[in-house]
Amino acid sequence: LSLLAGLAAAIDGEQLRLHYQPKLQAADGRALSVEALVRWQHPEHGLLSPLTFVPLAERTALIRPLTEWVLRRAAEQCVAWRRTGLDVAVAVNVSPRSLLDDSILELVAQTLTETGLPAHALDIEITESAVAEDPDRAFRTLVGLHELGVTISIDDFGAGYTCLAHLRTLPVDRLKLDRSFVSGMSGSAGDEAVVRGMIALAHDLGLGVVAEGVEDHATGERLAELGCDQLQGFAYSRPLPPDEAVLVLQAMA
Ligand code: G
Ligand code: G
Ligand code: NA
């Protein structure tokens, strides 16, 4: 409860931070996209992981100002980088409750207008659970986001119960393979078979594929051979504060 009380103040008082983790194109190693990941610089507890407060916010009305803050800050940062000549897009995680909120389309549209971020440079990462919770509303929202010109990724793909029937009709652009399959690949022929199958499925549906949680270069190379489009993970870069992330982006531009 006290953490929750502090979170409202943290959002207002700018104790939140965004770290950025590059996603590389498997074909040429260029980093043309980064995922924004929120942290809370807590005055007593130090830098807190989103796992400690995002689920808490998601159960209350606080998820709304949190999502607003993350979208705005990520868009502003991406615009600043683009002004220096970096051709980079930013991905933002939008939790189920925010995706299903009536005002999400207006919020995204307003963020793009007010920051000047081109819509194609914003990617929204959603989880399968948002779709499972309210398929009709999720569908309408995703159509609306697509009409704005932003791209949509399904996060943690394969970890939950993805309804493949939904996948066929949903307006999404790419799947992010869940880390659990990727980390198991090097030691397990079964995991590699699952990954290979998911890449084939995605491509057959006209979707791109991102592997998350790539922790060693051998796995990254194998994923590239299997046709995976983008790679993300500690092998290439941890999530970094903006002043360090920009150096990685410049090196991998
Ligand atoms: O950065 P880290 O690996 O600690 O993130 C842990 C989890 O928190 C991830 O599943 C990630 O999707 C989630 N997360 C990180 N930043 C945000 C955010 O800005 N909004 C939401 N809803 N979830 C986030
Ligand atoms: O669910 P989501 O993809 O948003 O999760 C992002 C989280 O995964 C972040 O907290 C980030 O720190 C973490 N992460 C990023 N790369 C790796 C990796 O290579 N290995 C592991 N174990 N975690 C990673
Ligand atoms: Na994500």
Summarize the structure in words.
- The protein is built from twelve helices and nine strands.
- Strands 1-2-4-5-6-7-8-9 form an eight-stranded mixed β-barrel, surrounded by six helices.
- Helix 8 links the parallel strand 6 and strand 7.
- The longest helix has 21 residues.
- The chain is globular, with a radius of gyration of 18 Å.
- The chain binds guanosine-5'-monophosphate (2 copies) and sodium ion.
- The site of one guanosine-5'-monophosphate has 10 residues, from strand 2 and helix 2.
Task: Write a concise keyword list for the protein shown above.
single chain, 253 residues, alpha/beta, TIM Barrel, eight-stranded mixed beta barrel, 12 helices, globular, binds guanosine-5'-monophosphate, binds sodium ion
Overall domain count:
1
Helix content: 40-55%
CATH architecture identity? Alpha-Beta Barrel
Number of strands: 9
Structural class: alpha/beta
Residue stretches low in confidence (pLDDT < 50, at least 5 long) are: none
Oligomeric state of the chains present here: single chain
Cofactors and ligands: guanosine-5'-monophosphate, sodium ion
CATH C-level category:
Alpha Beta
Largest sheet entry: 8 strands, mixed, barrel
Order of helices and strands: HEEEHHEHHEHHEHEHHEHEH
Spatial strand order of the main sheet: 1-2-4-5-6-7-8-9
Radius of gyration over all CA atoms, rounded = 18 Å
What is the averaged pLDDT score?
94
CATH fold name: TIM Barrel
CATH-defined superfamily? EAL domain
Gap between N and C termini: 43 Å
The geometry reads as: globular
Approximate strand percentage: 15-25%
Q: Count helical runs.
A: 12
